[in-house]
Amino acid sequence: MAMPDERLHLMKITAIRAGDIILRYAKGGADYKPDGSVVTEADMRSNEFITGELTRRFPEYGILSEESPDDLGRLGKRKVYIVDPLDGSGDLKRGEDDFCVQIALAEDGEVVLGVVYEPSKKRLFSGQKGWQALLAQDVTLRGDDTYDASEGVLSPLKPVAWQDAIVGHPKSYKGDKYQQLYKWLCIPESRLRKSGSMGTRMMQVALGETHMILGYTRSLNEWDVAAGHAVLEARGMSVTDVQGNPVRYNKGIPKTGNGILVAHPDIKWDLLHHIKGCLPLVPL
Q: Do residue 25 and residue 146 come from a single domain?
C-alpha cells in the first residue's frame, strides 16, 4: 500500500492559505471574462499566491491554472500542477458558500494528488491515488506549514440503488439540455441537488450527499475537475468521461473533451448504460 505523499501536505497548506486570501478579498472588485464567467480580485490574488508558492517549491514542475496565461511549456513536463484558484467566483460574489480552491498534481497525464478546500466552511478534502481520501474540518492555520483540524479518513460508502441515486446539478446552468437528459434517464426533479461550483458538487459525492454528477458537456476545463477527480478516486468512486473512458490531463487543449461522469460504484454500470442511449438524442 502506498505511503502518504509529502507533496500533498504542501498542497493542503497552500490551499488553506489561498482560502484565507479569498476571504480577505471577498468584497473586492469583479469583472467578466470573454466567456461571460465572473473573475474577481480574490481569484487573481489567490492565483498569484498558489502559482508563486508551487513554482518556488517545485520549479521543475509545470503549472496549468485557470487565471494564468498558458504558455504550453507544461506539455514538456511529466509532472504538472493543475489549479483553480477560486472555483465558484459568482457564488462568492453573491455571498454564498459554494466555492472552493482546487489544486491537483498530474503525472504523465493522470491525476495522482488532489485537494479541495472550502474556505467558508473551513473544510479540506484531500486524496492520493492508491492511498486514501481524507476530510479535515474546522481547519485553522497554526503556522506557515501546519494547521489544526479534526481530520480523518472518509467513512465507508453506503450502498445505493439506481432508482434512489441523487444527482449533483449546477444551480446556475441556463438552458434545457440537462432537463432533456434527466427526462431520458427517468430522473425526477426530486432527485436533483443543486449547488454552485463543480468542486463543491464533487465533494458532495465524496460525502455521500449525492451519488453522481453528469458533466454532460465538451466545455469542462481540466482545472474544473482534476482535484475532485483525485479525491473521488481515492474515495472509491468512478470518474470517467461520459462514455466510460479514462480522463487524461495536461493536454494541449486543457478540456476533458467528452465531459465527465462521476458515479457511486453501485450505480456506475447502470449510469453508463443509460447514458449510452442518450448520446444520439441529447448532444454533448
A: yes
Quick: pLDDT tens for 127-148.
999 999 999 999 999 877 899 9
Q: From the CB of residue 114, how many other CB atoms can be counted at a distance below 10 Å?
A: 32
| E strand residue ranges, 47-109 | 62-65, 79-87, 100-107
State pLDDT tens for residues 65-83. Answer: 999 999 899 999 999 999 9
The answer to the question of residue 21 being in a domain is yes
* Cα 212 to Cα 60: distance, rounded to the nearest angstrom: 36
112, 217: one domain: no
Cβ-based neighbour number of residue 165 at 10 Å: 18
Indicate whether 79 and 190 sit together in one domain: no
Q: Residue 80: what residue type?
A: V
Task: Mark out the alpha helices in the chain (DSSP H runs).
Answer: 6-24, 41-57, 89-93, 177-184, 198-206, 222-235, 268-278
- Mean pLDDT for 28-32 is 67
Burial class (CB in 10 A: 0-12, 13-18, 19+), 176: exposed
Q: Name the pLDDT band for 237 (thresholds 50, 70, 90).
A: very high
